[in-house]
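Supplementary Methods, section 5.1.

A reviewer requested that the exact input to the structure prediction be made available. We therefore reproduce it here, unchanged from the version used in the analyses.
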Amino acid sequence: MNFKISKNRFYDALQIVAKAIAPNSPVPALSGIKMDAFRDQLTLTGSDADISIQMVLSNATDEKLGLSILEEGSIVIDYRYLLEIVRKIDSDEINVEILDGTFTRFSAGRSEFKINGIRPEDYPTVDFTVPSNQFRIKSSLLSQIIEETTFAANSKETRLILTGVNMHAENGSLICTATDSYRLAKKTVPVECEPFNVTILAKSLNNVRSIFSASEEDITVALSDKKAQFSSANIILQTRLLDGSYPDTDRLIPAEFTNTLVINRHALIAAIDRSSFIRNDNMMIVRLQINSKDDITLTNKSQEIGESHEELAAESYEGDPLDISFSGNYVSDAAKILTTENIVIRFTGEMRPFILNNDKDGDATILQLVLPVRTYN
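The structure derived from this sequence is encoded token-by-token as follows.
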């Protein structure tokens, strides 16, 4: 293998592919990036067995790539050494050449590095076959869906299915739901596709957003019973699906409400943030007492640290006086995802889940739900 390529374009591509690599993979070859040089293109592959990314580089799709394949071939190089070498080379162009077996030279200008690679035969086979159930979606909309749901997924693997986002399509709608059992985020958008029901790792979806958010192309989403694949003209990201049935979260969402609060979103976030240093067992539990739209108190107490009191006023309030406690972080996170100046919070009681929505002029496709916390103060 022997090729020349733009240093900057090569480094950018390596950074994308490296997102799929686990630093401490039990399979030595999976700690590397596989490079396959063909007659008119260079293919880069990274994988940790759960997530795999493949990127095809060619002059046909990138006129500034400067790719010149002098000799075809394949090699696997540890991604840490590969990124470090390419990043530090001070040249506009870099030459990569296999000298003997897996012994590989990287040269540019007066710099030269030689490193032992891994045989391409030792790299596990990654099946990038495209599943038959496919639909296309704007990259900006896909990015929005991921941003508005993944934060609510469980970050701990105590219940693996909740570390993902459930996506199911029916009757022309794509419904995406994430929950950690204490909060829930739900996004519904129109889409034309065959019905499906899958759960995808939140980590994988965040990589999808990171890679494709700047793209102006539509993204092709392809699904089977084992994997989900996201692709554009020259990048494929595929991830395994989580096994098991996702819980029926619709039963958590109240059908009727007894109290409705319309409040400035930024004022609520700021009030919670000012008391965020007060925590009990590393949790910020906030008490909200509402008597009327002009008589609202937000309290945070800790016997070890102290307490804070915030007086708030709302745009409107309907219902009897309410005294409810909840995780300040959860409500703040939910409010930050919403987009209107004022938001609507609907309650059904002091120990029942409550929901947050955009005001009437905002995006109605997003719903945020938070469970209250029992306190004894």
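The chain has three domains: 2-122, 133-250, 253-370. These observations are discussed further in the main text.
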